[in-house]
Amino acid sequence: MDEQTQWHLLPKAPEDYIGAAGTIPLIAQLLYNRNIPLNKVASFLSGDQVTQGNPFLLPDMQKAVTRIYKAILSKEKIVIYGDFDVDGVTATATLTEGLSWLGAQVGTYIPDRFDEGHGLNSDAISKLNQQGFNLIITVDCGITDNEQVKQARKMGMDMIITDHHIPSTDLPPAVAVVDAKRQDSRYPFPDLAGVGVAFKLLQALFHKDSRERKLVELLDMVALGTVADMVPLIDENRYLVQRGLEVLNNTNRVGLQDMIKTSGLQMGKLDAESISWDLGPRLNAAGRMGTANTSYELLISTSPDEAHLLTLELEQRNIERQKLSREILAKASDRILEQGEALLLIDGDEDYPVGIIGLVAGKLVNKFYKPVIMLTLGKELCRGSSRSIAEFNIVQALEQCKDLLVCFGGHPMAAGFTVTRQNLNTLKERLTAIAHQQLSGLDLHPQINIDAEVPLSAFNSDTINMLPKLEPFGQKNPQPIFLTRNVTVVEHNNLNHNNSYITAKLKQNDSTWKAIMFGVPHTTEEMPDHIDVVYSLKKSHWNGEETLQLNLRDFAPSRELG
Fold first, then answer.
1. Do 424 and 553 belong to one domain?
2. What is the rounded average pLDDT of the residues 255-280?
3. How far apart (Å, rounded) are the C-alpha atoms in residues 221 and 354?
4. Do 282 and 89 touch, CB atoms closer than 8 A?
5. 25: domain range?
């Protein structure tokens, strides 16, 4: 076991819960760990549509619908103002396509990560005004951009904000501000992604319209954005992703078909992990290494030849992104080691690409288990991207420093901001003090939450057939993790030179499993004959056949002699 990683076995479910859940005991334990009440077990396992909320319960939804229909009927020019990550790009494409079905004159605008950054940009609003747009609808942004909304109003343009980020105390003075995280929201589920909010707007616009069923065609993009943005995959998000994966596995979008094929994935076998590890990073690579319009064009393309060229471009950008990330990670790691026992890790450089710093910050958090801020240093403005740990709410910390910031936004575990070079040192000092106040004295170690301790024989056909009913896995509905003690190592092998990728054959009594482990903190010489293993189950495809193997998260010498 990695000395830094702590194993935490979750409490055993009460016998009355297991007895009343109406499923096999291990599945009941997993449901209990995910806080599924008994009266919702059946709908959770069936993916029932009852989890869909009424879109008109979202704040200002009726105002938004009324203003959009006025624009459509009077043939006003509407522009969808998006964001450059997967959530923003899919939300832009979803809303644009849906509005076009209603006959709207609709254009799109996705800002440049490098020149404009997140959120509404004053120069962009001026350009859109000059192009004759009367109504701006934001997706996945705008909730804290009060000054830019005021600017649009002065120019005679109306604005509708649709967002899923946390609002500031004062809402922007838009025609409508549609965000389930508003304090006055009556919507039953606050954690929709940006693309989820855009989809709810379309549900409201198509309410009682004969074409309402056509909206299901957009759920492939809703699934992409929801999974890639790492919002909780529970409640309505879980339903949207379940249905969205069904659409994605049969998608008619030639761009997605080509990307799926190029990624080495198979239509019909895509799951949330396919989005997290393969499709999402490729779509994100456009905005990180250039302009996100490449990903947008791929989503809406109807030409197989164009789609293939766009796929190859994204593939190349993703390779460049991976290479650059490794280089920046190595450089930042060395610098951070020099910071000693700092509780908040901060590193910045003029040469750090703004599209990469968030990814590197996430890897550094995994490595050091401390909140990390990475900075791209400019002569006048510095861009920051932060990733955090459960013990430190990074966006709350930035809120306490907002007087020093040009802009900021995000979530408790991830946030971005812009600060003047002049205020940078003061910001560092204040954030460091906040981190010291909140984290000093805590035992900061990464922790693996283990769902259940089981023998390898627990995975019989009934259990294996039931496990997929818990999918899709993601935030707040994690892939189940198990602990099995005193497993015999029949064989094991390194598959590359630096001990970071091994395979093994493990046996306990009559049960034998193949196992794989990535990012190994051990060398294979450290693997004794008998070990305790922490693992999830992983699907493996080989020669057209699907098999299950153990995906090891950690292991330690067994305390029981074999």
1. no
2. 95
3. 26
4. no
5. 6-45+447-557
